[in-house]
Write a structure and sequence with these properties.
With 121 residues, the chain is α+β, with helices and mostly antiparallel strands. It has helices spanning 5-17, 21-24, 27-33, 50-54, and strands spanning 34-41, 47-49, 68-74, 79-89, 93-104, 109-118.
Length: 121
Amino acid sequence: MNLNETDLRELEKLEESLWERKTRFDNDYMRSVLADDFLEFGRSGKVYDLEESLSAPDQEIKAKLPLKDFSVHQIDETVALVTYVSQVEYDSLEVSNRSSLWQNTGEGWKLKFHQGTPVNP
């Protein structure tokens, strides 16, 4: 399978949905997007599994959308690597390099792995 324009738009939409409060804290939505074996290396260095990700407290997310330098790289027939730079306003602006591994399960894209790496200001 080669990624087509529909796949590219869908992956961008899915990735951005993780930065939107209405979808990020909707556990039914998140269970439909995250793989059962989801794993994240947060920008803080903390490691999160699916249940830890779902238990995050509902809060405002001040992320700049669209995502900066968004790019999709096909890894194999069913796996895509998404990379971008996140810009999120907390007490100050936090900038991170981000990468996500998405797998097309035949029933849709599922996020298997995500990593955030802080960028020095």
